[in-house]
Amino acid sequence: MTWMRWAPAMEQALYDPARGFYRRPEGPAGHFRTSVHASPRFARAVARLLLEVDEALGRPEELTLVDMGAGRGELLTGVLAELPAEVLARLRPYGVEIAQRPAGLPSTALWTDEPPRGVTGLLFANEWLDNVPLDAGEVDEDGVLRYVEVDTATGEERLGEPVSAADAAWAERWWPAVEPGEVVEFGGPRDAAWARAAAGLERGLAVAVDYGHTAGRRPPFGTYAGFRDGREVAPVPDGSCDVTAHVALDSIAVPGLHSLWTTQREALRALGVSGERPALALATSDPAGYLRALSGAGEGAELTDPGGLGGFGWLVQAVHMPEPAGLACLPGWQTLGA
What we know:
The protein is an alpha/beta fold. Helices cover 30% and strands 25% of the residues.
């Protein structure tokens, strides 16, 4: 057996150069389905958001789109296909990913393993933070919060040493746990990763989309999960499956920025994605158009289903810019204290 805390186990399982899950040639789409893969309507909505960011920024000479955790470039390619020529002429698109540049990516797209700095535009992170490695802790029978260790070959867990002062302070602030058996997933590395990515924006909008939770709704027993070949499996950190954990969406928010927490359902509906069925009269006047509209409604319904993809959380943070028009109508915008 090889015992590790969860953070190094995830790091090795997901990103090891020789056998990490995200180094595999088939990419994430070979194992699980995200909003990007569910429907082109998702890329269309992100393109609309980019256009609204462009408008709110006063149509800068150079507009940037940063796709964090770009996979094999599916979202980036989809968004570029939806943009008008005038915007494409000013656009500098980046895919940020550790894997090699995928074949077929538009030549204008830059491929890098680090987010760019000093740019203006939209930074979009779809299901990126849930794969940033983090440790877990569990309260023992004596009320002591100890790190959880995992066997990298079997996924079996045991309790290790007491947590560090930094992780104890993070838990006290964001995820208090006092009862024996309660589990905490220490979000400090994700807070730092998001702050580092968002700091690359000189002006613009930073959006993190993920399964997540906020204070008062923390899962008491943790959220580590595994995915392989389209199925959920045990989260064994041996490189054979994706290993994820839900995101504390309130803790990652960068202080001092105008921010909004909402659901994917509400965000996509504000950006024009609807699951409403077309009027039956269209079936008589334009049967082919009706079938296309019906298919689109089905895709929209999947993207906005509150029990599925629509249940994702969106953290939206504006950096030296006003709220984009499409999302300005959503309630809950606030400026976070520094």
